[in-house]
Design goal:
mainly beta; single chain
């Protein structure tokens, strides 16, 4: 069996607050290696939560797939939510919960 040409990491970004996602909210997701290097990133409009994401990376850049982590933010006109700690990627998926960040 041949090795895949690309490694795909997918999952969801959500928050636990009971509010609707404001129009124009943006989710930014970064795939982070064990040494802190960003291997892939994407930003896109969040129509609601949970919001699905998918990132692809050259598997040659990944020395240990079990050490991959996700950093995420959701930015809107009413606030910013983000990961307080990097979320682990388990078997190619990560379900990330972001928490409100006071930016004042």
């Amino acid at each position: 069996m041949t090795e895949p040409l690309l490694l795909t990491v997918s999952g969801t970004v959500t928050f636990l607050e009971r509010i609707a996602v404001p129009p124009g909210a943006i989710v930014t997701v970064r795939l982070v290696a064990e040494d802190g290097d960003v291997l892939a990133a994407s930003a896109f409009e969040a129509p609601g939560v949970p919001t699905a994401f998918s990132l692809v990376v050259d598997p040659a850049l990944v020395t240990d797939p079990s050490s991959l982590q996700i950093w995420a933010t959701l930015t809107s006109s009413v606030g910013v939510w983000g990961t307080l700690e990097l979320a682990p990627v388990v078997e190619g998926t990560a379900d990330v919960i972001v928490r409100r960040i006071d930016v004042s």
